[in-house]
């Protein structure tokens, strides 16, 4: 069952522009950061849920990247007084790969740490990308009410390690168990992180993420 309706989605950034003339008149917001058609660093991300008090109805994942412009020759020129980039220039790019439910409590999706194309987006030097994080969201919905979103992510070191990452979530944050619903929960690194003021650790469930490199 494919629970994602998102597919591969590129969030757009700013665009190719002439370098002459008044910089204040240039609209950089139309450049499109492009998908890398031949990524070499591909990974399968698996999410496994254990002990949740109910089902998850939908989900998606997102990989986030940042432009690295060490010499200042990729992005448009900065303001000579403030040193700031034009406000319409985003330095982050995003991809939302498809997420598939492969078993009752398991979801899988593929992402790449080199998922965006390196090119001269602004008519200057080639823009290089740094992979920052891959995020996974699962949603649970109580009939007729808003969904609750449960999130866990992996940074570059965690992806490269090949080791599972476990996030702990309170069961009473699942839809229908708290009013009003919180709408968002981020997985904590250990059950102790859920401890209440009186020292009590509430009932919890876990989400485990594992990243496996895919052979070229």
Protein described:
- The chain has one helix at residues 156-161, and strands at residues 10-11, 42-50, 58-68, 92-95, 99-103, 106-112, 128-141, 147-154, 165-170, 184-186, 204-213.
- The chain has 216 residues and is mostly beta strands.
- The protein has one domain (10-213).
- The strands form two sheets. A six-stranded mixed β-sheet has the order 1-4-3-7-8-10. A five-stranded antiparallel β-sheet has the order 5-6-2-11-9.
Largest sheet: 6 strands, mixed
Q: What is the H/E string? A: EEEEEEEEHEEE
Helical segment count: 1
Unreliable stretches: 3-23
The total domain count is: 1
Identify the overall geometry. Answer: elongated
What is the percent of helical residues? under 10%
Residues in β-strands, percent: 35-45%
The computed structural class is mainly beta
Strand order of the largest sheet: 1-4-3-7-8-10
Question: What's the total number of strands?
Answer: 11
- Whole-number average pLDDT? 84
- Quote the distance from N terminus to C terminus: 26 Å
Radius of gyration: 20 Å
List the helices and strands and how they pair.
Layout: E1 10-11, E2 42-50, E3 58-68, E4 92-95, E5 99-103, E6 106-112, E7 128-141, E8 147-154, H1 156-161, E9 165-170, E10 184-186, E11 204-213
Parallel strand pairs: 8-10
Antiparallel strand pairs: 1-4, 2-6, 2-11, 3-4, 3-7, 5-6, 7-8, 9-11
Task: Record keyword descriptors for this entry.
single chain; 216 residues; mainly beta; 5-stranded antiparallel β-sheet; 37% strand; elongated
Q: What's this, in brief?
A:
With 216 residues, the protein is mainly beta.
